[in-house]
Design a protein that fits this description.
Strand order of the largest sheet: 3-5-4-6-8-7
Radius of gyration: 19 Å
Shape: globular
Distance between the termini: 49 Å
Bound molecules: uracil
Number of strands: 8
CATH class of the largest domain: Alpha Beta
Largest sheet: 6 strands, mixed
Order of helices and strands: HEEHEEHHHEHEHHEEHH
Length: 251
Protein backbone atom coordinates (compact mmCIF):
# COMPACT_ATOMS: atom_id res chain seq x y z
CA UNK A 1 0.00 0.00 0.00
CA UNK A 2 1.50 3.37 -1.02
CA UNK A 3 2.06 6.19 1.49
CA UNK A 4 -0.34 8.38 -0.52
CA UNK A 5 -3.10 5.78 -0.24
CA UNK A 6 -2.57 5.58 3.50
CA UNK A 7 -2.90 9.34 3.79
CA UNK A 8 -6.07 9.35 1.66
CA UNK A 9 -7.53 6.55 3.71
CA UNK A 10 -6.71 8.35 6.94
CA UNK A 11 -8.36 11.52 5.67
CA UNK A 12 -11.44 9.57 4.68
CA UNK A 13 -11.62 7.96 8.10
CA UNK A 14 -11.23 11.34 9.75
CA UNK A 15 -13.94 12.83 7.57
CA UNK A 16 -16.27 9.91 8.35
CA UNK A 17 -15.61 10.37 12.04
CA UNK A 18 -16.37 14.09 11.84
CA UNK A 19 -19.58 13.38 9.93
CA UNK A 20 -20.46 10.83 12.61
CA UNK A 21 -19.85 13.40 15.36
CA UNK A 22 -21.94 15.91 13.46
CA UNK A 23 -24.77 13.36 13.25
CA UNK A 24 -24.49 12.90 16.98
CA UNK A 25 -25.03 16.65 17.42
CA UNK A 26 -21.56 17.90 18.22
CA UNK A 27 -21.14 21.49 17.13
CA UNK A 28 -17.48 22.19 17.77
CA UNK A 29 -14.33 20.39 18.73
CA UNK A 30 -12.01 22.56 20.85
CA UNK A 31 -8.47 22.51 19.47
CA UNK A 32 -5.10 23.20 21.10
CA UNK A 33 -4.14 26.84 20.50
CA UNK A 34 -0.89 25.96 18.75
CA UNK A 35 -2.15 23.07 16.69
CA UNK A 36 -0.51 22.92 13.28
CA UNK A 37 -2.67 24.44 10.62
CA UNK A 38 -4.85 21.87 8.94
CA UNK A 39 -4.47 22.50 5.24
CA UNK A 40 -6.49 19.85 3.51
CA UNK A 41 -9.74 20.52 1.74
CA UNK A 42 -12.93 19.69 3.56
CA UNK A 43 -16.20 21.51 3.58
CA UNK A 44 -16.71 20.73 7.26
CA UNK A 45 -13.36 21.84 8.57
CA UNK A 46 -12.66 25.49 9.33
CA UNK A 47 -8.92 25.70 9.77
CA UNK A 48 -8.91 29.41 10.57
CA UNK A 49 -10.38 29.16 14.05
CA UNK A 50 -9.69 27.36 17.28
CA UNK A 51 -12.60 25.02 16.72
CA UNK A 52 -13.69 22.60 14.05
CA UNK A 53 -17.15 23.85 13.09
CA UNK A 54 -19.42 20.90 12.44
CA UNK A 55 -22.99 22.08 12.62
CA UNK A 56 -23.14 25.86 12.97
CA UNK A 57 -26.91 25.76 12.59
CA UNK A 58 -27.60 23.07 15.15
CA UNK A 59 -30.16 23.87 17.83
CA UNK A 60 -30.09 23.05 21.53
CA UNK A 61 -33.05 20.68 21.16
CA UNK A 62 -31.21 18.81 18.48
CA UNK A 63 -28.20 18.49 20.76
CA UNK A 64 -30.34 17.16 23.60
CA UNK A 65 -31.86 14.63 21.26
CA UNK A 66 -28.42 13.73 20.05
CA UNK A 67 -27.36 13.14 23.61
CA UNK A 68 -30.26 10.71 23.96
CA UNK A 69 -29.20 8.96 20.76
CA UNK A 70 -25.66 8.94 22.07
CA UNK A 71 -26.86 7.20 25.23
CA UNK A 72 -28.42 4.51 23.02
CA UNK A 73 -25.17 4.20 21.10
CA UNK A 74 -23.30 3.89 24.39
CA UNK A 75 -25.68 1.18 25.56
CA UNK A 76 -25.06 -0.66 22.28
CA UNK A 77 -21.34 -0.43 23.05
CA UNK A 78 -19.07 -3.00 21.46
CA UNK A 79 -22.16 -5.14 20.90
CA UNK A 80 -21.83 -8.91 21.07
CA UNK A 81 -25.53 -9.66 21.44
CA UNK A 82 -25.58 -11.76 18.26
CA UNK A 83 -23.20 -13.60 15.95
CA UNK A 84 -22.99 -10.73 13.45
CA UNK A 85 -20.40 -9.08 15.69
CA UNK A 86 -17.88 -11.68 14.53
CA UNK A 87 -17.69 -10.42 10.94
CA UNK A 88 -18.34 -6.73 11.28
CA UNK A 89 -15.85 -3.92 10.77
CA UNK A 90 -18.10 -1.18 12.15
CA UNK A 91 -21.45 -0.97 13.87
CA UNK A 92 -23.76 1.08 11.63
CA UNK A 93 -25.91 2.97 14.09
CA UNK A 94 -27.71 5.55 11.96
CA UNK A 95 -27.21 9.02 10.52
CA UNK A 96 -29.07 12.20 9.82
CA UNK A 97 -30.96 14.77 11.86
CA UNK A 98 -31.96 13.48 15.33
CA UNK A 99 -34.82 15.99 15.12
CA UNK A 100 -36.10 14.80 11.73
CA UNK A 101 -39.80 14.44 10.93
CA UNK A 102 -39.01 11.56 8.61
CA UNK A 103 -37.19 8.33 9.47
CA UNK A 104 -36.21 5.71 6.89
CA UNK A 105 -35.62 2.20 8.21
CA UNK A 106 -33.60 -0.13 5.99
CA UNK A 107 -32.60 -3.74 6.38
CA UNK A 108 -28.95 -3.86 7.37
CA UNK A 109 -25.50 -2.63 6.41
CA UNK A 110 -23.79 -3.85 3.26
CA UNK A 111 -20.05 -3.85 2.55
CA UNK A 112 -19.72 -0.08 2.07
CA UNK A 113 -21.73 0.68 5.18
CA UNK A 114 -19.73 -1.85 7.21
CA UNK A 115 -16.52 -0.23 6.03
CA UNK A 116 -17.59 3.35 6.71
CA UNK A 117 -19.85 2.86 9.73
CA UNK A 118 -22.64 4.86 8.08
CA UNK A 119 -25.97 3.68 6.66
CA UNK A 120 -26.85 3.74 2.97
CA UNK A 121 -23.54 4.96 1.56
CA UNK A 122 -23.21 2.38 -1.24
CA UNK A 123 -25.17 2.02 -4.49
CA UNK A 124 -28.51 1.57 -2.74
CA UNK A 125 -27.63 4.56 -0.60
CA UNK A 126 -27.05 6.71 -3.66
CA UNK A 127 -30.46 5.68 -4.93
CA UNK A 128 -32.06 6.47 -1.58
CA UNK A 129 -30.37 9.88 -1.53
CA UNK A 130 -31.70 10.50 -5.04
CA UNK A 131 -35.21 9.53 -3.95
CA UNK A 132 -35.01 11.93 -0.99
CA UNK A 133 -33.32 14.83 -2.74
CA UNK A 134 -34.57 14.67 -6.33
CA UNK A 135 -37.86 12.86 -5.79
CA UNK A 136 -38.96 14.50 -2.55
CA UNK A 137 -37.09 17.80 -2.70
CA UNK A 138 -35.65 17.24 0.78
CA UNK A 139 -32.12 17.21 2.10
CA UNK A 140 -30.96 13.80 3.32
CA UNK A 141 -28.85 14.96 6.27
CA UNK A 142 -31.02 17.90 7.31
CA UNK A 143 -34.53 16.49 6.85
CA UNK A 144 -34.26 12.77 7.56
CA UNK A 145 -32.78 10.22 9.90
CA UNK A 146 -31.76 6.84 8.48
CA UNK A 147 -31.17 3.60 10.33
CA UNK A 148 -31.56 -0.15 9.85
CA UNK A 149 -33.27 -3.00 11.68
CA UNK A 150 -29.87 -4.58 12.29
CA UNK A 151 -26.66 -2.66 12.90
CA UNK A 152 -24.03 -5.13 11.69
CA UNK A 153 -23.46 -6.55 8.22
CA UNK A 154 -24.67 -10.12 7.66
CA UNK A 155 -22.06 -12.28 5.90
CA UNK A 156 -22.41 -12.10 2.12
CA UNK A 157 -25.29 -9.64 2.55
CA UNK A 158 -27.72 -12.45 3.36
CA UNK A 159 -31.06 -11.57 4.93
CA UNK A 160 -30.93 -10.96 8.67
CA UNK A 161 -31.97 -13.96 10.76
CA UNK A 162 -34.67 -14.00 13.42
CA UNK A 163 -32.31 -14.06 16.41
CA UNK A 164 -30.25 -11.22 14.93
CA UNK A 165 -33.34 -9.08 14.40
CA UNK A 166 -34.60 -9.85 17.93
CA UNK A 167 -31.26 -8.86 19.44
CA UNK A 168 -31.03 -5.59 17.49
CA UNK A 169 -34.65 -4.45 17.21
CA UNK A 170 -34.78 -2.79 20.68
CA UNK A 171 -32.10 -0.31 19.57
CA UNK A 172 -34.05 0.73 16.47
CA UNK A 173 -37.14 1.06 18.65
CA UNK A 174 -35.24 3.29 21.07
CA UNK A 175 -33.93 5.42 18.21
CA UNK A 176 -37.47 5.95 16.94
CA UNK A 177 -38.82 6.73 20.44
CA UNK A 178 -36.08 9.29 20.83
CA UNK A 179 -36.52 10.96 17.41
CA UNK A 180 -40.34 10.89 17.49
CA UNK A 181 -40.74 11.33 13.72
CA UNK A 182 -44.00 12.32 12.05
CA UNK A 183 -43.59 9.54 9.47
CA UNK A 184 -41.56 6.33 9.19
CA UNK A 185 -40.79 4.70 5.85
CA UNK A 186 -39.92 1.00 5.88
CA UNK A 187 -37.62 0.12 3.00
CA UNK A 188 -38.32 -3.41 1.81
CA UNK A 189 -39.79 -6.57 3.27
CA UNK A 190 -37.47 -7.33 6.23
CA UNK A 191 -37.84 -3.78 7.53
CA UNK A 192 -41.63 -3.72 6.98
CA UNK A 193 -42.05 -7.16 8.58
CA UNK A 194 -39.95 -6.18 11.58
CA UNK A 195 -41.79 -2.92 12.15
CA UNK A 196 -45.21 -4.54 11.78
CA UNK A 197 -44.27 -7.71 13.68
CA UNK A 198 -45.69 -9.99 10.98
CA UNK A 199 -44.65 -11.27 7.57
CA UNK A 200 -45.29 -8.63 4.91
CA UNK A 201 -45.66 -9.15 1.18
CA UNK A 202 -44.09 -5.94 0.04
CA UNK A 203 -45.42 -6.10 -3.54
CA UNK A 204 -48.97 -6.27 -2.18
CA UNK A 205 -48.70 -3.97 0.82
CA UNK A 206 -46.41 -1.17 -0.31
CA UNK A 207 -48.00 2.19 -0.88
CA UNK A 208 -50.31 1.77 2.10
CA UNK A 209 -50.32 3.43 5.49
CA UNK A 210 -49.79 1.41 8.64
CA UNK A 211 -48.98 2.40 12.18
CA UNK A 212 -45.86 1.88 14.24
CA UNK A 213 -46.48 2.73 17.87
CA UNK A 214 -48.66 5.68 16.92
CA UNK A 215 -46.46 6.90 14.03
CA UNK A 216 -47.77 6.67 10.44
CA UNK A 217 -45.75 4.01 8.66
CA UNK A 218 -45.41 3.81 4.86
CA UNK A 219 -44.07 0.66 3.22
CA UNK A 220 -42.13 0.92 0.00
CA UNK A 221 -39.58 -0.98 -2.07
CA UNK A 222 -35.98 -1.14 -0.90
CA UNK A 223 -33.75 1.01 -3.15
CA UNK A 224 -31.55 -2.05 -3.82
CA UNK A 225 -34.64 -3.84 -5.20
CA UNK A 226 -35.38 -0.80 -7.32
CA UNK A 227 -31.86 -0.98 -8.77
CA UNK A 228 -32.27 -4.69 -9.50
CA UNK A 229 -35.72 -4.32 -11.03
CA UNK A 230 -35.35 -0.89 -12.58
CA UNK A 231 -38.69 -0.72 -14.32
CA UNK A 232 -40.82 2.33 -14.90
CA UNK A 233 -43.57 0.66 -12.90
CA UNK A 234 -41.37 0.16 -9.82
CA UNK A 235 -39.87 3.63 -9.99
CA UNK A 236 -43.32 5.14 -10.33
CA UNK A 237 -44.52 3.07 -7.35
CA UNK A 238 -41.77 4.44 -5.07
CA UNK A 239 -42.36 7.96 -6.38
CA UNK A 240 -46.05 7.70 -5.59
CA UNK A 241 -45.34 6.25 -2.12
CA UNK A 242 -43.06 9.18 -1.37
CA UNK A 243 -45.67 11.68 -2.59
CA UNK A 244 -48.03 10.22 0.02
CA UNK A 245 -45.33 10.69 2.66
CA UNK A 246 -44.81 14.33 1.62
CA UNK A 247 -48.54 14.96 1.90
CA UNK A 248 -48.66 13.67 5.48
CA UNK A 249 -45.57 15.75 6.30
CA UNK A 250 -47.45 18.78 4.98
CA UNK A 251 -44.93 19.43 2.19
N1 LIG B 1 -29.16 -1.55 2.57
C1 LIG B 1 -29.77 -1.37 3.77
O1 LIG B 1 -30.82 -1.91 4.03
N2 LIG B 1 -29.18 -0.60 4.65
C2 LIG B 1 -28.05 0.04 4.43
O2 LIG B 1 -27.56 0.75 5.30
C3 LIG B 1 -27.45 -0.15 3.17
C4 LIG B 1 -28.01 -0.94 2.26
Amino acid sequence: MSAEKTKTQRLRELKNYLVFLKDQGYRDIPLEKNIDKLNFDSEIINSQSDTLSLTPESAITSQNLSMELNAILKELGDCKRCKLCEGRTNIVFGSGNPNADLVFVGEGPGADEDEQGLPFVGKAGKKLTEIIEKGMGMNRERDTYICNIIKCRPPGNRNPEKDEISACKPFMQKQIHCIKPKVIVALGRPSASTLLGRPVTITKERGNWFNYEGVPLMLTYHPAYLLRAYTLENRRAVFEDMQKVLKVLGK
